[in-house]
Write a structure and sequence with these properties.
Serine Threonine Protein Phosphatase 5, Tetratricopeptide repeat, two-stranded antiparallel ribbon, 2 domains, mainly alpha
């Protein structure tokens, strides 16, 4: 095979043990606000968190922004939410960077600005945020095709997210490297069927339950969500694509990839305590 499999095989232990990036769940330092929110007194919680947010509490800024963006107990306002997302983003909160980038990409509360979305996502993606990595790959593949080496940048960021267990990134990376990509007469992503099938094999093991679906993968696109243009769940789509590709690839490639992943799994099987 043209490429070493160890980069992606190194994630097998992570997936097998169900380890995933923690999500933002904590309710900031103000326990009174957290208690009010839990009791359904969301307006009171909002005011308490807003006080903390304006005093510089980054997590409170994120919570206030989320409540405003979703209309959770307060009047929905993307415009004001973006102010608080920007405050939290300036303090390095990765979730805030991702949310603000999304709003710039789709024009929620701000004018569409793909360059700004790119810059925000690059900060979060470079810090290891898998959703940012996936979204940045999507921007380079779909929206910013004029950026130099956009195709190869998309492949690199899909791979970064794929390593962290994002199944949609694994599938998109497999598709991209199976077909290859040429832009403006320049080959940016070469065809590499063995590498592509490696990622499809890992995605398939997530779809059939052999590997646990990472929570962060569900944030991007859950296996049981429907793909409307396909008329099937993402899980079924992965399984169907796997069956199709494995039936047309040379048997030696299919066997080598499966054996390599099986060997890695056997050497990194988690214990019951893990």
């Amino acid at each position: 095979m043209r490429r070493c499999l160890m980069t992606c095989l190194g994630l097998v232990a992570i997936l097998a043990s169900g380890i995933a990036m923690s999500q933002v769940r904590a309710m900031a330092e103000n326990t009174e606000a957290a208690q009010a929110y839990a009791a359904g007194e969301k307006k009171q919680a909002f005011e308490l968190w807003k006080h903390d947010a304006e005093a510089g509490d980054a997590q409170a800024q994120l919570l206030v922004a989320n409540m405003l963006a979703t209309g959770d107990g307060v009047s929905q306002s993307f415009e004001i939410a973006n102010i608080y997302y920007a405050m939290a983003a300036d303090q390095g909160r990765l979730e805030a960077l991702v949310q603000l980038a999304t709003n710039y990409r789709v024009g929620q509360g701000v004018e569409v600005d793909l360059s700004q979305a790119e810059e925000l996502l690059k900060k979060a993606a470079s810090a290891g945020h898998p959703v940012a990595q996936f979204d940045l790959a999507e921007i380079y593949l779909e929206d910013l095709q004029n950026v130099e080496n956009s195709g190869s940048l998309a492949a690199a960021w899909y791979e970064a997210a794929a390593v962290q267990g994002v199944v949609m990134a694994q599938v998109k990376l497999a598709d991209l490297t199976m077909k290859g990509l040429e832009r403006d007469g320049v080959l940016q992503v070469p065809q590499d069927p063995p590498w592509a099938f490696t990622w499809l094999e890992i995605a398939k093991r997530g779809a059939d339950g052999s590997l646990q679906e990472a929570p962060v993968s569900r944030r991007v696109f859950a296996l049981d969500d429907m793909l409307e243009n396909e008329g099937k769940t993402f899980r079924q789509y992965v399984l169907d694509q796997y069956a199709l590709v494995s039936s047309v690839l040379p048997e030696n490639i299919v066997a080598e990839v499966r054996a390599s992943i099986d060997q890695q799994l056997a050497g990194s099987a988690p214990t019951a305590s893990e």
